[in-house]
Amino acid sequence: MNKKKSDFDKVFSAWDILVIAFGAMIGWGWVVSTGGWIEKGGVVGAALGFAIGGVMIFFVGLTYAELTAAMPQCGGEHVFSHRAMGPVGSFVCTWAIILGYVGVTCFEACAFPTIITYLCPGFLKGYLYTVAGFDIYASWLIVAIVVAFLIMVINIMGAKTAAILQTILTVIIGGAGILLIIASVLNGTVDNLDGQIFAGTTGVSNVKAVLGVAVLSPFYFIGFDVIPQASEEINVPPKKIGKMLILSVILAVIFYSFVILAVGMVLDSGAIAAAQKGTGLVTADAMAVAFRTSVMAKVIIVGGMCGIITSWNSFMIGGSRAMYSMAESYMIPKMFSKLHPKHKTPINALILIGVLTMLAPFAGRVMMVWICDAGNFGCCMAYCMVSLSFLILRKKEPDMPRPYKVPAYKFFGTMAVIMSGFMVAMYCIPGSGGNLILQEWIIVLGWCALGVVFYAICKKKYKESFGILVELISDEDAATLMPEADDVELDKVIDAAIDRVLARKAS
User: Fold this and answer.
1) Mean pLDDT of the chain
2) Which of 145, 309, 426, 471 is deepest in the core (most CB within 10 A)?
3) What stretches of 71-121 show up as alpha helix (H) in DSSP?
4) All residues at 6 or more sequence positions from 80 whose CB lies less than 8 Å from its CB, including other chains
5) What domain range is 163 assigned to?
């Protein structure tokens, strides 16, 4: 194990990491998918389903909280899994999470210009070609590429710059959601819940409906894991980092559940069905009804647009730090561990992810959905391996300092493994409602094959250095690692210094 001082600047405050994690979890889904959630589980059923899904993620989040506080080092999952499972386990875990991060950024690059079509119906100009049934327009491509470039530049300019952007946009998202919730209380009615409290007609069918939403909901909470990726840049006590991670999950659960209830208070079942058949933006339609003006629908759409950027920005941060940590361990080319000389950001990793997001729109939105789904599978795989690492390290390193310590670790750790394993299984079991289709499995297998290639090449190139874990140390500890001078050499240095002093006095 190598030891070194951190090369990063500690620029993230507690608020910064909270908005980064929350913004990663709250994307575009709450605007476009609320109607589908209600149709599947009912209003109360869907809200309850998200609460159950939040509990599932909560177990995983607890393991992350303890491990992040104990090892606040860039790379998060890479460090946790390496300490527990060694270099092979670490490679698999980190490679899987990178797929998730890259998948989301590529998807958001396509989602952003798509949402503009809702705000500006005449936006699509200059038809070019069609991919998987999705029409590509010149105007759509230009916007996607320009925004992708700007997000990359912002992240290169510094982590704090990215955090400022994240704060502004997250406040807009939260403000839009709060406006809807308040308006639903003032102008909505519980009468609208008649016939849509639950989707089923019997107790058994109601339970199935709630569980149907609960099964899908954890995938909307992916993103809290960005915090450990950037933990080396957080200027917050380790114990507080763990608490902020848990808080971000709780806030996301509250946000999703309250938005669902707000929509149900404003729109009856008929109105929701009509909105689904129309624009599909049920949340936006609810906002318009609540404020009795169509202008407010665009406020929700703008909030969703901000959600795309916050998710995009967060996963750029996470993906680049994960690549940096792998490069530090010589698991991928060392060039990806290079930091910007001024801004202290992993510039080559950011450029690579940025270029991929600029190229992604050329493949169309349908293919990006496939990549995003494949990426979510990668995230869930990483969650399961981190949860296992949590249990392993409690046995393997019981005396490790743990500023934030999970009580009853066997129960919570086991539940985290079960819940994350369940999410992985949902992607694999046909008919589960979340299973990957053939195209998505091809992407997963292709990413695995690329990982094998990197593994083989880097192991051959870097030899003994491959898979080495770099441990962070304090400035005080760094001083003790200075190589001791040979006694003879030291005597020569001292004698020479004395001679120089005497010579100066004689003159």
Assistant:
1) 89
2) 309
3) 77-119
4) 67, 71, 93, 228, 386, 389, 390, 393
5) 2-506
Kindly state the percentage of the chain with pLDDT values over 90: 67
Q: How many helices (H) and strands (E) does the chain have?
A: 19, 4
In angstroms, how far is CA 280 from the centroid of its own chain? 26
Task: Assess contact for 375 and 121: CB atoms under 8 A.
Answer: no
Cα–Cα separations (whole angstroms), residue 123 to 145, 149, 193, 309, 361: 15, 20, 37, 19, 16
Place of tokens 């995983």: 60
Could you tell me if 209 and 42 are in contact, meaning their C-beta atoms sit under 8 angstroms apart? yes
Which pair of structure tokens corresponds to residue 392? 């392993």
**DSSP conformation class of 73:** -
Q: In the chain, what percentage of residues exceed pLDDT 70?
A: 93
**Residue-wise burial string across 414-427, b where 16 or more C-beta atoms lie within 10 A, e elsewhere:** ebbbebbbebbebb
Give percent helix, percent strand, percent coil of the chain, each to the nearest 5.
75, 5, 20
Q: What is the mean pLDDT of residues 241-266?
A: 93
Cβ(320)–Cβ(105) below 8 Å = no
Instruction: Say what the pTM is.
Output: 0.87
Question: What tokens does 472 get?
Answer: 């962070």
Side-chain-side CA neighbours of residue 164 (13 Å): 8
Give pLDDT tens digits for 331-345.
Answer: 999 999 999 999 999
The whole-angstrom separation of Cα 117 and Cα 119 is 5
Contact 52, 274 (CB under 8 A): no
Contacts of 507 (CB under 8 A, 6+ apart): none
- 431 token code pair: 């008919």
- Beta-bridge mates of residue 129: 136
- The Cα–Cα gap between 114 and 28 comes to 11
* Residue 225 contacts residue 104 (beta carbons within 8 Å): no
Pairing mode, strands 134-137 and 127-131:
antiparallel
CATH number at residue 125: 1.20.1740.10
For 151-192, write each residue's pLDDT tens digit.
999 999 999 999 999 999 999 999 999 999 999 999 999 999
Q: Which residues pair with 127 in a beta bridge?
A: 137
Over residues 280-301, the pLDDT tens digits come to: 889 999 999 999 999 999 999 9
Number of domains in the chain: 1
